[in-house]
């Protein structure tokens, strides 16, 4: 399984990109893959081919309206392990002996 953190920005969208983010979140949600949206990107969990294909779909979707799209991506590849979207945080919380702050 893979955790993919991605942040996509249409370069000609102006100061706010929340509308573009919302469009990508719709695609991510429709994929059925587990995900978390945070203030600087989105983390998706799945098999390598499916998360890469989803990232490509998001890029190509934004490219319909934007002449230039940048993407920052980070992958954590760990075969045989799933549910890490939650378990990685739970592991840190266990070591702290408390829940971490969430807004």
From TrEMBL:
Family membership noted in the UniProt record: Belongs to the UPF0045 family.
GO CC, alphabetical: cytosol
Occurrences of domain Thiamine-binding protein (ranges): 5-93
Record InterPro entries: MTH1187/YkoF-like, Thiamine_BP, UPF0045_domain
Stored SUPFAM superfamilies: MTH1187/YkoF-like
Protein name: Thiamine-binding protein domain-containing protein
Pfam families named in the record: Thiamine_BP
């Amino acid at each position: 399984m893979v955790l993919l953190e991605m942040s996509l920005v249409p370069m000609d969208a102006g100061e706010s990109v929340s509308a573009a983010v919302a469009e990508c979140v719709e695609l991510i949600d429709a994929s059925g893959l587990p995900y978390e949206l945070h203030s600087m990107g989105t983390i998706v969990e799945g098999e390598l081919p499916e998360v890469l294909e989803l990232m490509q779909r998001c890029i190509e979707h934004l490219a319909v309206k934007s002449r230039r799209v940048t993407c920052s991506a980070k992958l954590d590849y760990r075969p045989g392990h799933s549910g890490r979207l939650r378990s990685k945080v739970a592991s840190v919380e266990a070591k702290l002996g408390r829940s971490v702050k969430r807004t």
